[in-house]
Amino acid sequence: MSGILVVLEQSRAEQSRESSLGRISWEALAAGRWLGAKLSLDVSAAILGAETGAAAQQIATKAGGNIVRIEHPLLAPYTADGFSLALQQLIARQPPAYVIFPHTYQVRDFVPALAARLGEVFISDVVAIADGPVFTRQLLQGRLQGNYRHTGSGPCLVSVQAGAFRADAATPAPAGEITVFTPQIEAAQIRTRPEAPFRGSEQTVDLGSAPLIVSVGRGIKDAENLPLVEDLAKALGAELAASRPICDNGWLPMERQVGSSGQTVAPKLYLAVGISGAIQHLVGMKGSQCVVAINKDPDAPIFEVADYGIVGDLFEVVPALIDAVKAAKG
Ligand SMILES: Cc1cc2nc3c(=O)[nH]c(=O)nc-3n(C[C@H](O)[C@H](O)[C@H](O)COP(=O)(O)OP(=O)(O)OC[C@H]3O[C@@H](n4cnc5c(N)ncnc54)[C@H](O)[C@@H]3O)c2cc1C
């Protein structure tokens, strides 16, 4: 076994044949390249689908290196059976030492099946990789960290959490080869018939790729006060997100929820307005590059992860901030 295979993921737009790779895929590639440099291993990227030419070209242009297009008509739409079968066959032909995935819903769905087929464990949701390599995962909603070493004889399967690696840290590689691998898949092996994706691609809020997020919590008190934070988001050009109570109340759609039962985000700026910083919220946003918190309680846990904290009443601070942003933008 040798080398590192990073499996990138095409977004839902694949169904309309428009290629698009989410930021977390580039983060996984950065993780693979980092590990490759540490262990002096070659790193290849792979992409699965019925039509992967555009995505492969995008990887070649942005990141270089060797790319494997794993292509078969039965790989669209996505199914766990199709993807695990196809990758198992590629791995059997060119066994890598490590296979790195972005930690997405799709990966959570099919990689356990792939691991079972290979008789290996899946070290999922990794937040850091240290020399060894030692893979760190969060346990008990982030209260504990577990360190894992791979001791199996087959490839080590790892998924990296959004925000754990910086997408722009992937060292570009010299241009490599783009090869096509056609797995042997029969229609009868695909046991599921997927329906339309549960999030419509038109309306999807991809908080995971948003560079700026204004996130609102129960401190806003009432749905009728939401326009205040919407105005701040608009002034900054940011996406609006929320803590769980806001979405549970139906004040904002569930797809805007950040946290352990919502989306994981890693923006350049995360502005938390009236959010206490419960652990279930923190696990979804602590990969943010800069956290600014506004809270009237100086002991709110959100301040422990904040780079900048404003202790004050959001109903005074946010209007002043909107004025300042507008003035700064001219
Ligand atoms: C299994 C499970 C999964 C969960 N998943 C999630 C999840 O994915 N995401 C999530 O967010 N939560 C999740 N939770 C809920 C989580 O435990 C917290 O209850 C929730 O995050 C609290 O939201 P909040 O910070 O908006 O509200 P609160 O904890 O009520 O905090 C409100 C904050 O606003 C401040 N405040 C009040 N008024 C003002 C004011 N005028 N100006 C400034 N500050 C003010 C207060 O000081 C307080 O700190 C989950 C819980 C469980 C059990």
Query: In which range does the helix fraction lie?
Result: 25-40%
Topology as a string of helices (H) and strands (E): EHEHEHEHEEEEEEHEHEHEHEH
Give the low-confidence spans.
Answer: 13-18
**What structural class do helix, strand and pairing data support?**
alpha/beta
Small molecules (ligands, ions, cofactors) in the structure:
flavin-adenine dinucleotide
Task: Give an account of the 3D structure.
By secondary structure, this protein is α/β, with parallel strands linked by helices. The protein has 9 helices and 14 strands. The strands form 2 sheets. The chain has a 9-stranded mixed beta sheet with strand order 7-6-5-8-4-1-2-3-9. The termini are far apart. The relative contact order is 0.12. The structure holds flavin-adenine dinucleotide (FAD).
List keywords for this structure.
binds flavin-adenine dinucleotide, alpha/beta, 330 residues, nine-stranded mixed beta sheet, single chain, 14 strands, 9 helices, five-stranded parallel beta sheet
